[in-house]
Each structure stands twice: as structure tokens, then as C-alpha cells.
Amino acid sequence: MKLHEPVPGGPCWAELGTTDLEAAKRFYTRLFGWYPRTDPRQQAGGYTIARIGDAAVAALTPLYQPGQPVAWNVSFAVRDADAAVRQVTAAGGAALQGPTDVFDSGRFVVAADPAGAVFQLWQGRSFPGAGLFNAPGSLGWVELLTREPDRAADFYETVFGWSITPSQSYPQWGIDGADFGGMVTMDDKFPHEVPAHWLPYFAVADVNTVAVDTTDGGGSVLMEPTSVPDGPRIAVLRDPQGAMFGVYRAGDER
User: Could you tell me where in the chain the CATH 3.10.180.10 domains are found?
Assistant: First the structure.
């Protein structure tokens, strides 16, 4: 990812909703070297921020809503959450939750694009988002998997003003020429029940080692470690509670 800090329209945070917070803390601490700390305030509902050194890199949370899936969610930074959610709905998306103030940290929205891919909007105040990108254990890429690529391209360009690098195999999202993610068209190889979704990729020192550590920790490998032609070495994994995420070798940024 060519972005190294939260910028308006860019990915700024990744957040896991899980059925077993303590198990998730153990799993990702072993996998990425995170130091998770749960907010002790009752109103925080178990919200846990994972750090590498002094830098916040991601969050782990219990499931807050009935029917909420176990999943990683990607947040995009916005200057004004209320204005952004109006843009989302005007472009054919939906607001699923919020806008909601989160203490003095910022203002938060859960939204979905026209094909149903869920994402989050974050208007940072005292907390702008992740303090580290592209380094081992931190967010380094985000990927939209959708069955409606043309509609998705129109939607995200309208809402966020993203640029789209044309490619039949893998279009890439960018802001002012700085690419931060890509888009995969879901074909018949994807089970029908798998919805459109955003997938975060975390940088790691060694993709093969992390894949082994995932299975040793009770998770599974969905896509074996692979070297993408003219691209990074990657793998797609699933944690023990069922959340999918990707990893790529640090230094192999697209």
C-alpha cells in the first residue's frame, strides 16, 4: 500500500468482530506479535485495541448485533461521517448503523455498497486510525471481492473519489495516484453463499511461516502461499472463529 497514514478516503483501520474475544487475542498475538489491551470502560463493550510497540494497528471486538457475522471489517477515513453516509445512500448503498459518536475518539458508521459488501466510515477526532501501515503485523492492503465490479467501481468512485487502475484481472483502487487496494470479481469458483466483502491484508515477514502458524493455532489456509506474477507473495487465511484475512510479505507492496 502506498499510503502510510490515514488520509480522507483511504483505509484507516481494520476491526474484527468475533464470538470469542479471548481466543482471538491469543491467536493474533501469536500470529502477528500484537499486544491487545481491552478498554475497561463498561460502555466500550469489550473493545480491544491491538498494538505493535506504541502504534495501534487493529481492533478486536465481541459481536454487538444479532446476526452479525464473524468477520474482519475495513474502515475508511472521512472528514464528515454524516455527509459521507448521505453520499453512500445517494449512490445506492445503505447505512446499517450510525452515525454514532465513540467517546471523543471519532464518529462511526457501518455501511454497505449496492452489492452488499459491508465497510465502515470513520471520522477521526482524538483517534485518527492506525498508527502503522505496511510493516509486519500491520494493515497493508485492502481488497473488495464482488460479483458486480462495474457497479462497485461507479459506487466507490462516487462516494470516495477513488481512482481505478484499469485491469481485466485485478483493478486497483487509489487516491491521488497512491494505490491502497484492489478488486476481485467473484466467479463460479466462489460458493454462492459467500457474499461480497472487503478483505484486509496484513504485512508479515514470512508468508509461509504465518500459514503454518495459522493451522497450528486452530485456523485454516484458504489460499496457499502464492507468489503473484509481478506482485507480492500472499496467502488467504481463516482464524479459528471463522474470520477471513489475507497476508503478504512485507516489502512486496504493489
Answer: 8-122, 136-247
Instruction: Specify whether the CB–CB gap between 74 and 129 falls below 8 A.
Output: no
Beta-bridge mates of residue 117: none
Residue 254 pLDDT greater than 70, yes or no: no
Q: Residue 233 pairs with which residues in a beta bridge?
A: 227
Kind of pairing between the strands at 94-102 and 139-146: unpaired
Order of strands across the sheet with 118-124? 35-38, 48-52, 55-62, 11-18, 71-77, 118-124, 106-112, 94-102
**Is the domain covering 8-122 a CATH 3.40.980.10 domain?**
no
Over range 99-123, report the average pLDDT: 95
Helices 149-160/81-90 angle, 10° precision: 150
Indicate the pairing of strand 163-165 with strand 197-204: unpaired
* Mean confidence (pLDDT) of the chain: 93
Lowest mean pLDDT among 62-71, 136-145, 207-216: 62-71
Q: Is residue 201 within 8 Å of residue 137, measured between CB atoms?
A: no
CATH class of this structure's domain 136-247: alpha beta
Rounded to whole angstroms, the Cα distance separating 80 from 57 reads 23
Residues 49-63, mean pLDDT to the nearest whole number:
96
CA dihedral 26→32→37→42, nearest 10 degrees, is -70
Question: What pLDDT score was predicted for residue 208?
Answer: 96
- Determine the Cα–Cα distance for residues 45 and 153; give it in Å rounded to an integer: 35
User: Could you tell me how far CA 99 lies from the centroid of its own chain?
Assistant: 19
- DSSP 3-state assignment of 150? helix
